[in-house]
Design a protein that fits this description.
- It is a single chain.
- This protein has helices at about 15-45, 55-65, 70-80, 110-130, 135-140, 145-185, 185-200, 200-210, 220-230, 240-245, 250-255, 285-290; strands at about 45-50, 95-100, 220, 260-265, 270-275, 280-285, 305.
- With about 325 residues, the protein is mainly α.
- It has a three-stranded antiparallel beta sheet. A two-stranded antiparallel ribbon has the order 1-2.
- A hairpin with a 5-residue loop joins strand 4 (about 260-265) and strand 5 (about 270-275).
Amino acid sequence: MSNESVPRRLERTPERDEVLRRIGRNVVNFQMVEALLKHLNANASVHGPASQLAERMEAQRTAMHRKTMGELAGKMVAQVFQAPAESQTPDEITEPWFGFHFTVETDAQFIDQHDQEMRALVAARNDLIHHFLPQWYSAVDGDAETALTYLDAQRDETFRMMDRLRGWVKALDEGRRQTAAFMTSPEGKRQMELGLLQSSHLVAMLGEIALKTARPDGWAYVTTALNLIRREAPAELADLQQRHGHQNLKGILLAAEHFDVLDEALLNGGVRTVYRINDRYTLQLGQDVASEPTSASKALPSVNQIDNSRPAPGQ
């Protein structure tokens, strides 16, 4: 070890105190950048069922707390500058499922520039913490100006990055606030209940039966759907009120908003209920279904899902 690297006791002078002050200032600034990186990485993306959401968010915060500044910088580039996976929701869910992802939309040139600037800042932080001692001794032995210039240049670069990260954190937190406000609003709660109903196996079966048993005019009988489901999947009809909030299939069809429902008058004075998939949605059937006969008895085992990606006319 060189003599310059051996810690030695130094008398306080105004110049030495100023170097120490600016070292401490820069260390705090680097810690603020690191805290912003931890916040962005821990909160930019979260997906999961409602019952596990708080646990998953806490796990992400804990994981980020253990990472170095360099690891946080690299992870942020990979996460915040990339679009989320197309879907992180399982095919079948039994409770409300939440997904939130914050993305900064920009071009490849800016991403590369940011990455280089972030790497340089990490290197500057490591240089200050681990390698500044020789410069410090040079400063206290008379050349304080060089050390102060070095420390001020570090501060300027840190402030530029800090301002950028603060802007992203502000946008992220505002997005989370708006999402939370919507989810707790009456409309948000309605949408959650609707989404859970629309993603249910029962509604998917009703859609497939509507396609496979439709009359030439496109309408299918609710009684046909009831009989098929009762025969092939009777558990889907158990406790409709408790599971879906409706007492019968007609109520399910109306609430799901996937279907048109009509009561037809009969010659004997009675009525029968028919339904069809409305023009806002399409039902996607798997490849195995297309190759099989389209008899009603084949309808239930091969259910895929309702695709609700098409907006309603005028929306």
